[in-house]
Amino acid sequence: MTLSQPVPPLSPPAGRARRKDARPGELLVAALDVFVERGYTAARLDDIAQRAGVSKGTVYLYFKDKEELFEAVVRETLGTLVARGHAVAAGHTGTARSLLREILSYWWRDIVNDPRLSALPKLMIAEAGNFPRLALSYYQIVIEPARALLRDVLERGMRSGEFRAVATTNFVQFIIGPLLYRQCMQHSFALAVPGISLGDDQFFESFLDHLLRSLAPVAPEAAGT
Amino acid sequence: MTLSQPVPPLSPPAGRARRKDARPGELLVAALDVFVERGYTAARLDDIAQRAGVSKGTVYLYFKDKEELFEAVVRETLGTLVARGHAVAAGHTGTARSLLREILSYWWRDIVNDPRLSALPKLMIAEAGNFPRLALSYYQIVIEPARALLRDVLERGMRSGEFRAVATTNFVQFIIGPLLYRQCMQHSFALAVPGISLGDDQFFESFLDHLLRSLAPVAPEAAGT
Amino acid sequence: MTLSQPVPPLSPPAGRARRKDARPGELLVAALDVFVERGYTAARLDDIAQRAGVSKGTVYLYFKDKEELFEAVVRETLGTLVARGHAVAAGHTGTARSLLREILSYWWRDIVNDPRLSALPKLMIAEAGNFPRLALSYYQIVIEPARALLRDVLERGMRSGEFRAVATTNFVQFIIGPLLYRQCMQHSFALAVPGISLGDDQFFESFLDHLLRSLAPVAPEAAGT
Amino acid sequence: MTLSQPVPPLSPPAGRARRKDARPGELLVAALDVFVERGYTAARLDDIAQRAGVSKGTVYLYFKDKEELFEAVVRETLGTLVARGHAVAAGHTGTARSLLREILSYWWRDIVNDPRLSALPKLMIAEAGNFPRLALSYYQIVIEPARALLRDVLERGMRSGEFRAVATTNFVQFIIGPLLYRQCMQHSFALAVPGISLGDDQFFESFLDHLLRSLAPVAPEAAGT
DNA sequence: TATGAATGAGGCTTCATTCAT
DNA sequence: TATGAATGAAGCCTCATTCAT
User: Fold this and answer.
1) Treating both helix axes as pointing N-terminal to C-terminal, what angle do A168-189 and B119-127 enclose, rounded to 10 degrees?
2) Which helix (H) or strand (E) holds A37?
3) What's the first-to-final CA gap in chain B, in angstroms?
4) Is D26 exposed, middle or buried (0-12, 13-18, 19+ CB in 10 A)?
């Protein structure tokens, strides 16, 4: 079950008795929604339970506590997506360039433009400082694997001569930064600042072009002041 | 840059609570610290008052409630940042490249590496969704001016032939993104994930080089897949 | 002495829930264990059910609620203790001294040093205040018969001249007190206070000697201040 | 402030505003009452606060949590009494016999016969197993000091030749056991079993006589079988 | 202007008990 | 007879806010 795939509408399925194996999924969907809307701290277990159509206590049949519920949400959503990214990379046989494009456009399409998934990184940025356990598991499930994936792509391109030599750890942040920035702006300011510009329709193509230009093996004649 | 120095009000005080003159200064410093350390929700009025050396009740003599205190902190603090940024830009006479370097290295040195100031954008990203009014004023005071500044630099370079033609609104985000990403990682994850890598010592030079390579007027023969 | 062996009901089953015949045995054993380990309030029906190898709901097929289960445990368990105590007394033909020694060493060996049985009196002390009905039956089944038994021994000794004249009701408590005290300390503090001293290996012999010295018919010349 | 001395009636002092230094005492009195009536776990902070005439939150201005409140109750009551016992012993100049009598009659009068103080040891026996921190502090504040006090008395008597040689650690339990047993019976069974006999009026004198006979230096001719 | 004791609503979590299957 | 998923009341604790002094 992956939350990133079209999810059955959230209206509580009316009937009371449910099957045990359907519960966790329903709870995760409800939890994702509430966490996204309210933030981790402000999200109330009550709301999540209600939205999932169960009582408060039921949540605790499936998740030890609020933190574990959140962790499960992250794992099932972003964790799954990152894992899929790794699968894509593993099965890729073309150029590093095309792999980079594939991975990033995947990220762009399925995460940046998903109103719920795109909220999670912002959420983590907001709460990580106060919930070290959360921060650590998010780092292990999402951040480090995502970075490793991008490092791998860069290294492939460097080995094949498609990319110039770069410090991958740094460069990975040049890749992640703008996309994450856009996600954060979207969720933090788009509502309060209706006219905010998040770039034009060509944002993604423009970004990819930007990266590839920087990565081009031709040394520019002047990079200093 | 210190809050304890009188900072010129950045915008007409909005016709709200007034007498924020003498005592509030210490309160704002204390509040900044605590908000930075804990985040908005987790920051306790108790701690702020104690750190400012006053009693809890006193806070309410100057600020209507926690939200207004938070607003005041953001407003007073970020004002100085933008003001100085504008000054740097206005006084510059050299190439667009050198201006870009100057502005970014200012940001890098004085903000990204300042443990308190660097925390504010993260704080805003975290809380903007819950404080639309604050989000709007932050956008007007910080985000839009900062973007305008960078757009201006890019346009200068494009006019002078130093930079290729780029969609400035997009490209500005390629610039802001990585630096902000680094700030956020620093404040959200560095403590909880001790081993996290934020890049090597050359991060900033490496980033500047990356930008200038992308901006180089020579069009690479292949940017597509 | 094991609960899994059929134990003759000690008192008419009080006209309450009946069919406690086949399955309840395992439940009572499990309940005894959990009550002993955790105390009444902290004992969870979940744990008891799990340890008995049944589901939580099954417990309610045999016992109306937690209180009735607790009553059943106490009733079934302590019954065997007193029954055997009476048998020992009835079959004794020697001196009062030797009977006292026999009864107490039985208590010492089979109860004080049994990790489960020794916990029950502590449990009763802890909970009697909250379960008056249980308190009454425990008094009738255990306390009063045990006291009567000891009073009888003392009276035998006084009649035979082995013991001085004592107020038996008082003296019985001088006998019971130290042994019970030890049981309570064992179960309440031994775990939390690892270094606690419960006396040396000679505790029991030392105690018996203590009693017999006090009971010696020779009146000491000075007992007052 | 000692709770063992006649305490001002518990009715909430009507007036709302109270002095800060009066609060802890009022809270301790209320807490002692509620703990004694309900036991530690069943005692609700709400009840304690209400009985002290304050709101729930106020309790937390003076005590970190429920455990610390309970610990304070123990310290201020039994802890104070035990400390006073040590003072009595330190200032004593007469025989060991008279000191033993003085200390025990003090215990008898001020603790065993105090309806509230006498409940605490039972309470601890009931709860120690589930609250190790509580158990440890009770051991340190009450049990070990009380035992040390009695060991000291026994040793004085042995040195002066008033008492025979005894294993003090064992014998101390012969002293404590019966008195504690009586306290426990009083609180656990007296209400539910109206007719229960806790011994006659001479209980205490009878007990002291019992101890002194056992401690008498004259060796009885027969202590075996 | 300043204090700080007091308030009390609100959230997470536990667990005895129920009931549809 | 047996299950075990679901319930929901209840309690501890926090903390923004108030107010008498």
Assistant:
1) 40
2) helix A23-38
3) 47
4) buried
Pick from D194, D170, D166, D200: nearest CA to D182: D200
Residue pair A104/A208 in contact (Cβ under 8 Å)? The answer is yes
User: CB distance from C71 to chain D under 8 Å?
Assistant: no
To probe the interface with D, which of C35, C92, C181 has the most D CB atoms within 10 Å? C181
Residue with token string 């900033």: B204
**Across chain C, which distance is largest between two alpha carbons, in Å?**
67
Selected residue of C100, C188, C203, C221 to mutate for chain D interface (largest D Cβ count, 10 A): C188
Report the alpha-carbon distance of residue C181 to residue D177 in Å, rounded. Answer: 5
Instruction: Encode pLDDT of A178-203 as tens digits.
Output: 999 999 999 999 888 988 888 888 99
The DSSP code for A165 is -
Q: Are C40 and D41 in contact (CB under 8 A)?
A: no
Burial of D198 (0-12, 13-18, 19+ CB in 10 A): middle
Q: How far apart are CA B186 and CA B197, in angstroms?
A: 10
Q: Above pLDDT 70, what percent of chain A? A: 88
Neighbours of B178 (CB within 10 A): 26
A2 Cβ contact partners less than 8 Å away, ≥ 6 residues apart:
A76, A77, A80
**Structural domains of chain B, with CATH:** 66-219 (1.10.357.10)
Lowest mean pLDDT among B74-88, D11-25, D208-222: D11-25
For the stretch C144-203, pLDDT in tens is 999 999 999 999 999 999 999 999 999 999 999 999 999 999 999 988 898 888 888 899
Which of A42, A167, A223 comes nearest B200 by C-beta? A167
Q: Given CA atoms A56, A57, A58, A62 in this order, what sign does their dihedral have?
A: positive
Q: Do D192 and C128 touch (CB under 8 A)?
A: yes
DSSP state of B219: P
Determine the pLDDT at residue B16.
Answer: 38
**Per-residue model confidence as pLDDT tens digits over D85-104:** 999 999 999 999 999 999 99
